[in-house]
Design a protein that fits this description.
It contains 20 helices and 17 strands. It has about 475 residues and is α/β, with parallel strands linked by helices. The longest helix is centred in the C-terminal third of the chain and has 18 residues. It starts with 5 loop residues before the first strand and ends in a 7-residue tail after the last helix. The structure holds cobalamin and iron/sulfur cluster.
């Protein structure tokens, strides 16, 4: 039986971090292992990924590529073109966030034959079955296909399916140890839910998952982690869910079961400030006992009026209250902010800076990264900007240049504002980070600067940046 398995090759493009390729794990694991041999190639791990990939494609049913908006598109294009050049008949399927929103536009590229919209497990399984049988993809829900005459066939959407109806993720498909090495820690990436019920105007999620949310049964999550830990010996789990705390009963059952099963790990996850406010104290304590070590709480802006405009549906006071609880319980925090929303006022940016200062000073274990607003495709605020004349890229090549990572501001941040924010970020970080004794003087100076909002003549910044150039993330 095993000898007759057909190969399905999956590719994860280059990216800046070494998070495990969970999307490919999800779609690859759901294929029937008796009938398909899944090969995952990760461009971040393999210096000659193109060659490896081409060598695997002989007789493959198809190539599947996961594609985020921005730089990963160029790598996805490079690989897909190489695959087509070597095997012109091989169907190339793109899935993930960009093809979910721009399925038709991606099909304008000759090396892409099929795009998948939204959740991919069931759609990809059906695509693979049909391709393996030589059948057409007409009527295959959840995907778009370019027909031989060049027309695009838009199949109906596929409803979001419960995650427990899929095969569990088979981490044997990826070199887990290699990811541990590259991350520099024995940390497993795990996804326990998909989608999000909220409506933040700057986020693509409402467009890709239609404000729906599905989660794996907490008992299954706990048991999977127990078994995976026995196999891989990790010490920490990074839940990559968009909103891990969507259902309180689920978190409670998971935390309890992790304790009962004696799964000795720490874990990190995302939490909205309003969810944190609603979480009873006993559940905070239970989560902490089960290993909760760090929360990512999206703040976005320190200005309540801006929070309202971007439909974040939280109040800044909720953030402070949740931060206070985290501080009390010694839970580390990452509180990301965004500045430079279209037409954002100076007062709004100043409120964000004040909020960053307040949170950062609460604990050396609180991080407060500030990102510049980038017009993520699909989001409501971008549609508004477009209606006022902002031009979004209109082809794949332009989208691939649409750099989310370089940390440069969008058109809504003036040069002076950018300079101020960059300096503030630098001194704020230096002022509060844990450092060794030799840093005392610099750190005291940085705190003085932040207290006074005095960022002129940043000699320390220029010197340190010269000595230790930093990778620029947005
Ligand atoms: C891990 C992660 C990363 C990793 C990527 C690791 C990798 N594999 O290369 C890193 C850290 C590098 C990263 C970077 C960024 N990310 Co990111 N990231 C995530 C995160 C947290 C998890 C992704 C994941 O694995 N999900 C789990 C899988 C199971 O879900 P999924 O991706 O939706 O996949 C399903 C479907 O999309 C589909 N599918 C996906 N791929 C494929 C492929 C095929 C062939 C098929 C058939 C189907 C299919 O099927 C899957 C199963 O149902 C998501 C949020 C989230 N929870 O999804 C954000 C998210 C994807 N990132 C996002 C953003 C904005 C960024 C950054 C711009 C952030 C920043 N400011 O720097 C950067 C830069 C990206 C870039 N342009 O280079 C956005 C989406 C943006 C977009 N339109 O592409 C998300 C949704 C977060 C958010 N809500 O804003 N990210
Ligand atoms: S920013 Fe977070 S909470 Fe808001 S819609 Fe996106 S995923 Fe949901």
């Amino acid at each position: 039986m095993i000898a007759t398995r057909r190969k399905v090759v999956l590719y994860n493009p280059h990216a800046v971090f070494f998070t495990m390729p969970l999307a490919l794990l999800a779609v690859g694991s759901h294929l029937d292992p008796e009938r398909y041999e899944v090969v995952i190639i990760d461009g971040r791990l393999d210096p000659d990924a193109e060659r490896t990939l081409v060598s695997q494609l002989h007789d493959a049913v198809c190539l599947g590529v996961t594609v985020l908006t921005g730089a990963p598109i160029s790598d996805a294009l490079r690989i897909s073109r190489a695959a087509k050049a070597a095997h012109p008949q091989l169907p190339v399927v793109w899935g993930g966030w960009h093809p979910s929103m721009f399925g038709i536009e991606c099909l304008a590229e000759p090396c892409v034959d099929v795009t998948v919209q939204g959740q991919g497990e069931a759609t990809f399984a059906e695509i693979v079955e049909r391709l393996a049988a030589g059948d057409s993809l007409e009527g295959c829900a959840g995907c778009m296909v370019r027909l031989p005459d060049g027309r695009v066939l838009k199949n109906p959407a596929r409803p979001l399916l419960p995650l427990d109806s899929f095969r569990p993720h088979d981490y044997g498909l990826i070199p887990v140890e290699r990811y541990f090495e590259l991350k520099g820690k024995r940390q497993l990436d795990y996804i326990s839910s998909q989608g999000c019920n909220f409506r933040c105007a700057f986020c693509s999620d409402p467009f890709v998952y239609g404000r729906e949310w599905v989660g794996i049964d907490p008992q299954n999550v706990a048991l999977a982690l127990r078994d995976l830990q026995a196999r891989y010996g990790f010490t920490d789990v990074n839940f990559q869910d968009e909103t891990f705390f969507t259902r309180r009963d689920r978190v409670q059952a998971l935390a309890q079961r992790l304790i009962d099963e004696k799964v000795e790990i720490t874990w990190a996850a995302t939490m909205r400030a309003d969810q944190g406010m609603r979480l009873p104290q006993e559940l905070w304590a239970l989560a902490k006992r089960s290993g909760l070590r760090r929360l990512l709480v999206g703040v976005e802006s320190g200005d309540n009026a801006m929070l309202k405009r971007i439909k974040k549906d939280i109040k800044i006071e909720q953030v402070y209250e949740v931060a206070r609880r985290m501080q009390e319980m010694k839970i580390a925090g990452n509180f990301p902010f965004i500045v430079g929303f279209p037409d954002e006022t100076d007062e709004s940016v100043a409120a964000t800076i004040a909020c960053v200062k307040r949170l950062r000073a609460m604990s050396p274990d609180f991080e407060t990264p500030i990102f510049y607003f980038k017009p993520y495709p699909g989001s409501a605020i971008v549609l508004e900007a477009v209606s006022k004349g902002f031009r979004l890229p209109d082809n794949l090549s332009e989208w691939s240049q649409f750099d989310f990572v370089a940390g440069l501001p969008g058109p809504w941040v003036s040069g002076t504002k950018y300079q101020l924010i960059e300096r503030f970020k630098f001194f704020q970080e230096l002022a509060w980070r844990r450092t060794s004794a030799g840093w005392d003087l610099l750190q005291r100076l940085a705190r003085f600067r932040c207290r006074r909002d005095e960022y002129r003549w940043p000699i320390e910044m220029n010197l340190l940046n010269w000595l230790q150039p930093r990778e620029r993330l947005s």
